[in-house]
Write a structure and sequence with these properties.
Layout lengths: L2 H28 L3 H19 L1
Helix pairs in contact: 1-2
Length: about 55
């Protein structure tokens, strides 16, 4: 595989992750429910797992 395509793929994944992370933080601030916080933490961990492993 070409190195540049790998870099573009990684950068796009990081951008998507940053956007999702920011939206999750805003949602946590809006909705202070404990269940939602736990679910969002699990979602972030799953995204990290799928991206880097």
């Amino acid at each position: 595989m070409d190195i540049s395509s790998i870099d573009i793929n990684l950068i796009s994944r990081l951008c998507i992750f940053i956007i999702l992370f920011g939206l999750t933080i805003k949602a946590i601030k809006l909705i202070s429910g404990l269940t939602f916080k736990i679910a969002s933490i699990i979602l972030i961990l799953l995204l990290l797992y799928k991206m880097f492993i």
